[in-house]
Each structure stands twice: as C-alpha cells, then as structure tokens.
Amino acid sequence: MSFIAIIIIGIAAGFLATRALNMQTDVPTTIAIGVGGALLGGVLLRVLLTMMGWAAGLVGAVIGAVALIWVWKTFVDR
User: Fold this and answer.
1) Residue 23 to residue 29: CA distance in whole angstroms
2) Is there a contact between 32 and 17 (Cβ–Cβ < 8 Å)?
3) For 30, 59, 61, 69, which has the most beta carbons within 10 A of its beta carbon?
4) Would you say residue 70 has pLDDT above 80?
5) DSSP 10
C-alpha cells in the first residue's frame, strides 16, 4: 500500500476510532492516531490486506487506532 493511501485510510480510521471510543481530540491528534493505527494495522494485517483488499486495510487501520487509543488512555493519560 502506498504511503498516501496509508495517510488517507489513517485519517478516516482516526476519525472513526476517536468517535467509537468517545474521545475528544483535536484534528492533528486524530490524524496522528489514525496514521499510527494505519501503520500498526498495516504491519499486523498484511496477509489479510493481500487477501481482502482495501476494506481490510480500513479494518486494520481502525483496529490499530483503537489499540493506540487504549494504550494512550491506559498508560499515558493518567
């Protein structure tokens, strides 16, 4: 997946993940969460991406962003 596609999917994933977890963040933080989640999800779900296409990339990005939000809320934001 190209870097631009990761950014675009990451932005969407960050928005969906922050809304799903009812987290109020500013736009740059939402984008950073989404892009980080897209990178994490892209690495972890590379095989699924190959088999399922772009939809799997979005699913992986959302899962990765949710995981990053969980880590942030659990360990950093105390």
Assistant:
1) 11
2) no
3) 61
4) yes
5) H
